[in-house]
Amino acid sequence: MSDTEFEFSDLDLKIIDILKKDGRTSNHNIADMTGVTTNVIATRIRRMEKAKAMKIVAVSDFATYNFDVLLPIGVDVKGRRANDVAEDLAKLDEVASVQLVAGKHDIEILVTLPGLEQMGSFLMEKLSKVKGVRNLDAAIAVDIIKFDFDVAPI
Fold it and tell me: Is 51 a residue whose pLDDT tops 50?
């Protein structure tokens, strides 16, 4: 098995399913639900975390942190490698995610802002000043139908 592969057992999948519903479920309660010991649960969780096959994090709503505007933005790059531009974009506090893509644009980013009044200054004073940014194609999310943090369904 290579460094990037991880074999999930049936027990691992049960543990993940329980933690998806409530990431604060204790090892003791997971053990009760799965019929194994608390030590087995702790060992399995540590193994999955060490292999980077699972990570337990707190997730909150954008609005909780006063982000009322969500901007998906396509970024076209010229004069620099797209990967280098993406690294610089990832350093901006307002940028929630950065993806190198194959499609209409070189990079797609997701930006969170407190309000529309910050949009112009962010686009003109921060984003467009990143070296290598040639063109921006910004949209405004009017409603979030689904934003799921499960990046890889198992």
Answer: yes
Q: What residue spans in the chain does CATH classification 1.10.10.10 cover?
A: 10-50
| Token reading at 151 | 């990046």
pLDDT at 66 > cutoff 50 = yes
- CA–CA separation, 103 and 133 (whole Å): 16
Q: How far is CA 24 from CA 33, 49, 56, 60, in A?
A: 14, 15, 9, 14
- Of the listed ranges 2-11, 107-116, 135-144, the one predicted with least confidence: 2-11
Residue 11 structure tokens: 């027990």
Stretch(es) of the chain classified as CATH 3.30.70.920: 62-138
Sort 147 into a burial class: Cβ within 10 Å, 0-12 / 13-18 / 19+.
exposed
**pTM of the model as a whole:** 0.64
In CATH, the number for domain 10-50 is 1.10.10.10
* Class of the CATH domain delimited by 62-138: alpha beta
